[in-house]
Amino acid sequence: MRAAGFFREACIRRGLVPDRLGVDLKGSLSATGRGHATDKAILAGLHGWEPESCDIDAVRALPQPLTADPRIPWAEGTTRAHSDDVRFLRFSEYKDDVLPHPNTMVFRALAGREVVFEQTWCSVGGGFVVLAGAEIQRDRSGPPAAQPHPFHDCASLAAAARSIGGTFGDVVLANEEAWDSWLGETTGRRPMPCPSTRRTPRAAASSRHPPMAPPSSCPPCWSKRPSDSSWIGRPSTTLSPQQALWESW
After folding, report:
1. Helix axes 241-248, 168-183, angle to 10 degrees
2. How confident is the model over 164-212, as pLDDT tens digits?
3. Other residues' Cβ atoms within 10 Å of the Cβ of residue 53
4. I need a surface site. Which of 84, 118, 140, 162 has the fewest CB within 10 A?
5. In the CATH scheme, what is the homologous superfamily, with its name and number, of domain 2-131?
6. What angle, 0 to 180 degrees and rounded to 10, lies between the N-to-C axes of helices 154-164 and 241-248?
7. Domain ranges in the chain?
8. Using one digit for the tens of pLDDT, what is the confidence trace for 206-245?
9. Distance (Å) of CA 121 to CA 77, 90, 124
């Protein structure tokens, strides 16, 4: 979704309103097929949606409306993004290619049959995407940045969350941002909520997609005020390391 969104932004910055879009998935992204919903995430990104604020039910349903009407909003106009335009390539179709990463996506903007703009993105894990061939400047002239909220077990993680009035994920994100500033990361990573909650962050909440409470399938590590749309970093007494890791995402 992030890579597709960055490709969309790059096209719009260049003033491109293509006739249609095409996306080729290679490597692991192709081999895993539709079961991982990669095609749906890409279609959502081409709409300009983001993981933090998108309606997950709408993402899951995207192939149906796009099959009936493949036009999507694009700058001041529209372009075509049919669900079949996201292709899971067979290995035989790219076996001679040297992939920059096992998770490779090739995005194309087309006018008729002519490719007017193309980018190759790699999903490198942990929410990071990298533009193939991009030079990432890293300034490591000094020692690694100290973590602002160090923790070593569930108790210290919970204490750190309480100290900032946030969630476990907020603690982890703050620590990672300190490292990112030292590494000079330019990969566009953004925080992601627990995937099972389908929660819209407060800043992006609306009457159409209000924040949702954790479902019954979530581990019993949530402590939430009924009138508050945020989760508080205060685990229950049954919190396990696995549950703490779950909440941190």
Report:
1. 60
2. 999 998 998 888 777 666 544 444 444 433 333 333 333 333 333 343 3
3. 15
4. 140
5. D-3-phosphoglycerate dehydrogenase; domain 3 (3.30.1330.90)
6. 40
7. 2-131, 154-248
8. 333 343 344 444 433 333 333 333 333 333 344 444 444 4
9. 25, 18, 9
